[in-house]
Amino acid sequence: MEHVLSVRPRPLRLPLGRHKKCVALHTDTYLKLRAFAQQHELSWSGAIHELLRTNPAIGLPSLLQARKAAATQTFGTDS
């Protein structure tokens, strides 16, 4: 006889967009991440995303540089 649970387990976090992750950080990592996010005016998610993308093991282009380049082009063409 198969036993079926009537209650689904509660997720750690509600989904944000299509993805959800819950991480624990050491204090030194937390402080560096917070400083990076503030320096570049990013959300926590944006800072983590940027740092993961630009990690040499992943090798994706920087979205932060693309955003800055787009802003420069926009301001440069308003003559």
Number of beta strands: 0
- Alpha-carbon distance between the two ends: 76 Å
Radius of gyration: 19 Å
Spell out the helices and strands N to C.
HHH
Mean pLDDT: 80
**Contiguous helical run count:** 3
The coarse silhouette is extended
* Strand percent estimate: under 5%
Name the structural class: mainly alpha
Q: Please estimate the helix content.
A: 40-55%
Largest sheet: none
Low-pLDDT segments = none
Main features:
extended; single chain; 47% helix; 79 residues; mainly alpha; 3 helices
Outline the structure in words.
The chain is mainly α. The chain has a domain at 27-73. It is 47% helix and 0% strand. The protein contains 3 helices and no strands.
In brief:
With 79 residues, the protein is mainly alpha-helical.
Could you give the topology of this structure?
Elements: H1 27-39, H2 44-53, H3 63-76
Helix pairs in contact: 1-2
